[in-house]
Amino acid sequence: MSSVIQKRRTKKSTQKSKEVSQRTVDEGTTAEKKTHRKQIVKFVKNALEKGPAGLRAEFAAMKRFNDFEKMKAFKEAQEHGKNRYKDVGCLDHNRVKLHPPWPHDYIHANFVSTPSNPRRFICTQAPLDKSCADFWYMCLQEKVDSIFMLCNIMEKGAKKCCDYFACKDKPVLEFEEKGHKIIVKFESTGKMKFEKNTDAKITETVFTVEGPGGLAQKVTQYHWIDWPDRGVPTADMAIVELLAKTRPSKGPTVVHCSAGIGRTGSVVMIEYILDQLLGGQQIEETDKILQKIREQRNNSIQTDQQYLFVHQVILNYCLDKKMFDVDVKLAHLAFTEKYMKSVH
């Protein structure tokens, strides 16, 4: 009898300790949520108080410049026709270096980190006829499984990117650099499906890439067809969904537009803020964030419209996640009205 009583007591005691530990977890979670919310509120408050006009002034104060002392490889590559633009430099300290057996180590590309991932992105220019083989070898070397293509081949009557990828009409492409061959095979294509309503037109194409020494990699290219050059698309959740889709990748995501700094920089900055937001960290001041990105990919974000777009996307994300009370919703609405006038 006493052993039955003892068992009951032990059971009650175990149950009680479980309840206590669960309550502690819940309280911890609640406390974390409150802290997290405070951090988000601070970011939102700052953005809404500055408004589009204040953010444009903030962006204008961050002058863009090239320090060619920090871009020696870029200067040397100029004569070999490996750079798309003379005034869009590539920093030495974190540039992607191509390894042997590749005949040279230069490509106009930089590793760019987010707070939780030191190699989240490779930001690069759109491939040139002379750099297609380099581009695909980089993807093989760095085990890249996702590419964001944010430009079109032709824009406003000018060629912004070469035909570096296979398609239904040309299912196999071959590129060569000093005897080293890369083969790109078309596998499948279709429109990217979104959970939320969006205007974005993104094509999802899968390739198999094969290179020297038996290197092979499946790569998915997300081609954002309707993101205007030096402009911005609709600030909906398309970019958030695209980033979420590629976040689990083991290798870095390659991002390119034409120069690899404007539209490319906008995507990187949105992910940088989301990384802090999702990780429960304090979101830094956005001008400080842009400075950190520019220290990795020179002159990232080219226009004040792009800078505003980053803020509008994050604010819309917070609204979507029901983080706003009535007053903030009204302030957000006023911000959005001014934003729409600024970008159209």
Could you write a compact summary of the structure shown?
The chain is α/β, with parallel strands linked by helices. It has eight helices and ten strands.
Key words describing this protein structure:
alpha/beta; eight-stranded mixed β-sheet; 8 helices; 10 strands; globular; Protein-tyrosine phosphatase; protein tyrosine phosphatase activity
Report on the structure:
The radius of gyration is 24 Å and the shape is globular. The chain is 42% helix and 18% strand. Strand 1 and strand 2 (117-124) form a beta hairpin. The longest helix has 60 residues, at 2-61. It has a single domain, classed as Alpha-Beta Complex (Protein-Tyrosine Phosphatase, Chain A). Helix 5 runs parallel beside helix 7 and helix 7 packs antiparallel against helix 8. Residues 16-28 have low confidence and may be disordered. It has helices at residues 2-61, 72-77, 132-141, 238-246, 262-278, 286-294, 304-320, 326-343; strands spanning 109-114, 117-124, 146-149, 154-155, 158-159, 172-177, 180-191, 202-210, 216-224, 253-256. The protein has 344 residues and is of the alpha/beta class. The strands form two sheets. It has an eight-stranded mixed sheet, with helices on both faces.
Query: Whole-number average pLDDT?
Result: 91
Given helix and strand content, the structural type is alpha/beta
Along the chain, the helix and strand elements come as HHEEHEEEEEEEHEHHHH
Gap between N and C termini: 82 Å
The CATH homologous superfamily is called Protein tyrosine phosphatase superfamily
User: What is the third-level CATH name, the topology?
Assistant: Protein-Tyrosine Phosphatase, Chain A
Radius of gyration: 24 Å
Overall shape: it is: globular
Low-confidence stretches: 16-28
Secondary structure tally: strands: 10
Per DSSP, the total helix count is 8
Strand order in space, largest sheet: 1-2-10-3-9-8-7-6
What CATH architecture would you give?
A: Alpha-Beta Complex
Largest sheet: 8 strands, mixed
